[in-house]
Amino acid sequence: MTFSEQLINWYGQNQRSLPWRNIQDPYRIWLSEIILQQTRVNQGLPYYQRFVERFPKVGDLASASEKEVLALWQGLGYYSRARNLHAAAKIVQKEYGGVFPADYEKIKALPGIGAYTAAAVASFAFNLCHPVIDGNVIRFICRLDGIYEPAQSALCKKTIEKTLYERIDRQNPGVFNQAIMEFGALACTPLNPLCGQGQCPFQSVCHAFEHGAVAHLPVKEKKKPLPVWQLHYMLVLDQDDTLWLHKRGYNDLWRGMYDLPLLPQSPSLEAPPAVCDAEGISFLEHRTQTLSHRRLHFYFYKADAGTFGLRKYLESQKDCLRVKKNLLSEYAFPVSVRRFLEDIHIF
Asked: CA-to-CA distance for 239 and 300, rounded, in angstroms?
């Protein structure tokens, strides 16, 4: 039995039942792949279901506002994915009449789509012969073949791409790709892979198992310390049950989203500003959030709108606005800010 036959046979017996499987709708396949970038399946599944319900066709997504798309994406993080998803939908609608192109290069040219996602959509939807290379695949093949180059290096990925082109089932590339990703996700896992339980069909030909290198492959590069951001937020509630919000600019981390106004002269400080100790501004709490590229510290303060002419200051800021509390659900917030507002029962 060939490698691809063994793999597909295993997949037929072990695959998870997921709504984007066993379909050939490129829009829904693409949507699932974008959602599952940097996201676990159990976390991404409800988002996929909500997006499909609200935007059943690519044209529906294309005609939506960015505000609505970001609000529906809220909580998934990596918001550039949502913006690129929206931009790509508009291109598919405008340039291809709402029909996803059945061409790898045209798919790859869409915003937010790299080699992996293009290969996934091309093979799953159109059965085109392009192997997928994600983290699960890299781990499996590095262990199987004994690849000791750093997992994220260009040389490692090029080596894996070459071997996958040699092994892929050319009659069923879509099934092969689904199978190899699923094997990495369920069997050749980072911790406690099935080889330790004697259930791996590739155990007899696996370099890592034979040489006791399972725990050492794939090779990881040492991570650099994450840069730190510190943000000092004001919770400013007016008597008419409105909350002051701050719309993020289009050149920062949460482009187009909303958070709370920052303390004056404190867009991002390494130490709390002196005004924090002033009368009318009281510290509430400190929260942290770690992203892939930075660590965030959030400091929340309650502020009286009349303190030091604060209302006048807020009204002078073109990116600050007042919103009725019962309308806050229409706005997309960074997850830590939203959770803070939920915990103090603003939502």
From this structure: 20
33 is catalytic: yes
What is the amino acid identity at position 93?
Q
CA distances from 97 to 92, 111, 231 (A): 7, 17, 44
Question: Would you state the structure tokens that stand for residue 246, as one six-digit string?
Answer: 């701050």
Q: Averaged in consecutive runs of 10 residues, what is the pLDDT profile of the chain (347 residues)?
A: 93 93 93 91 94 96 92 86 94 94 96 94 95 95 95 92 94 95 94 84 93 92 85 86 86 81 61 52 88 87 78 84 89 89 87
Phi and psi at 151, nearest 5°, equal -55, -35
Instruction: Give the active site residue among 5, 33, 315, 330.
Output: 33
The residue with tokens 């187009």 is 256
The CA–CA distances, whole Å, from 256 to 71, 83, 293 equal 10, 9, 20
Of residues 131, 100, 136, the one with CA closest to residue 116: 131
d(CA 118, CA 304): 51
CA distance 254 to 246: 11
* Whether 59 contacts 95, CB under 8 Å: no
Q: Which residue type does 330 have? A: E
* Residue 177 to residue 183: CA distance in whole angstroms: 10
Q: Angle CA(162)–CA(167)–CA(170) in degrees, nearest 5? A: 110
Are the beta carbons of 200 and 193 closer than 8 angstroms?
yes
Rounded to the nearest angstrom, the gap between the alpha carbon of residue 167 and the centroid of all alpha carbons in its chain is 29
DSSP code, position 278: S
Count of residues for the chain?
347
- What is the Cα–Cα distance from 214 to 260, expressed in whole angstroms? 47
Contact, 7 vs 15, CB < 8 A?
no
Q: How many CB atoms lie within 10 A of CB 114?
A: 9
Paired sense of beta strands 228-235 and 320-324, if any: unpaired
SS3 283: strand
d(CA 8, CA 345): 50
